[in-house]
Every structure is written in C-alpha cells, then in structure tokens.
C-alpha cells in the first residue's frame, strides 16, 4: 500500500500544531518519523489513523482519501500500535489477538474457523503461540508488544502505524521488536525516539520540528551532525558501521566532547562520564 500525506495542517484552540506536513511511504517500506518532544510526531500519527481530522490537506491510502473511508473499512486497512496499553486488560493473549478480527465481522458474528486460523497464524508469526492462554497483564513489556503486533497481523491491515514501539523496552526487546516489524514487509510509519534505531531499520526518515517537516531521505543522508544539532540541540559524531553500512551516532552535550578515541568517536561529559548513546545491532555490530 502506498500512503501519502499532502499538506496536512492541524491546530488546537487556534494554535497551529502541524503546518503543511507532507510525506510519502512506498509500498512495503518502513519509514521513520523523528523529532524532539512536542514536535508533532504523535499528532501527525493521530491524523494518519483518523483520531484527529486535519484542518486542511489530505491523507490517501493507495490514492483513496482516508476521510472518505468508513470506520470499518479504515480499520481493515490501517493497524495501530501505541506507546501505552490499558493496565486493566483482563484478557488472555489469544483474546487480545482475536480483537484484530473485529473489523472483518458484523456486530453479532461469532468467531469461525477462519478467525481461529488467522489468530493462530498471527501468534506463531510473533513467536507467542505458547502464551495463548496466558493473561495479558502477566507478560513482560516486550512480550506485550509482540501480542499487540500479533493483533495487527490478525487485523490483516496493509498499513501499520507505530507510535514509539520501543519505548520502555530494554535493548534486546527493542531490537527484537524492530526486527519483527521490519520482517513483516508491511507499509509502516513509525514515530521513533531513538535515532540509532531509526538509522538501523528505516528505509527513509522524515524529521519533524515545530510541526513542520525539515528534512527527509535515506538515514545516511538525513542523520548528519548539523541537522542533529539544529533539531535536537546536541552534538554528534556520525560514522558508518563497517558491517551494516548504516549510520552509527554518538551523542554529546555541546562543549563536552573530548574527541575521537582509538575505538571510534567517544564523547564524554566534563566529569568524565560517557555521554555516548549507541545500540548493538543484530549480529554484534553497533549501528
């Protein structure tokens, strides 16, 4: 599915939040949306999955205006994974995943053999088959994220929207979640907090700041020190991982860089503590 956002504006109480935002997601690609807190990332996603209606502009899915689709048809095409889940879910894993079938069913339709098969396949695809009868609330953060992704698979949507899917996860679950999402091959728009995660997994990146898109393109083109300093207010050293070919970013507070070390650029605070932020990429290389 090809997704286009064309000149979208959105405001609240007369205060502009999104200003003439445009982006395009090619079929099957993973596009990252990055920017500082309050830049408009989540607001844009809410427009994309129809929680908010833009003041102007258009969002199209394979050329069809999103606002012209009925809610059920929209839910068949777009699946959403949010940052937080309700903490009072008293459902099993299998029941949570089965909720993904709702857009395909009438109000009084019972689950049938096809629904059971789709749910079973979705659980298998995310490696959660053996957790099917576990209470959702007993799972770890990474396991819950897998279950929610399985629910989107059961939904059989062609477009996936992720709002900071690695938030609150430890490094292993961050990497496992992104590997899983990347491997799905579904057209995906993901708001990401971690620039190294974005660099390691995204086909393209859009940078939003002050409600406007200020840069876009492949990670190696976008993630440059000048832009990182301008948008995020920190210094950085950007290198290329010799194994992945992807950018690898080390961050430092301006004025606190001690310069490159033998094992690569390493930044330190004045008190000697490392300020660098790097993640281990699959296969043992940092990106």
Task: Give a description of the structure.
The protein is α/β, with parallel strands linked by helices and 287 residues long. The protein folds into two domains: 3-223, 3-Layer(aba) Sandwich (Rossmann fold), CATH 3.40.50.300; 225-287, no CATH class. The chain contains nine helices and 14 strands. The strands form four sheets. The chain has a six-stranded mixed β-sheet with strand order 6-7-8-3-9-10, sandwiched between helices. Strands 2-1-4-5 form a four-stranded antiparallel β-sheet, covered by helices on one side. The protein has a two-stranded antiparallel ribbon with strand order 11-12. It is globular and about 60 Å long. It starts with a strand and ends in a 22-residue tail after the last strand. The model is unreliable at 259-287 (pLDDT under 50).
Write the layout of secondary structure elements.
Layout: E1 3-12, E2 15-25, E3 30-34, H1 41-48, E4 56-61, E5 64-65, H2 71-77, E6 78-81, H3 93-98, H4 113-125, H5 141-155, E7 159-163, H6 171-184, E8 187-191, H7 195-201, E9 204-209, E10 212-217, H8 219-222, H9 225-232, E11 235-240, E12 247-252, E13 260-261, E14 264-265
Parallel strand pairs: 3-8, 3-9, 6-7, 7-8
Antiparallel strand pairs: 1-2, 1-4, 4-5, 9-10, 11-12, 13-14
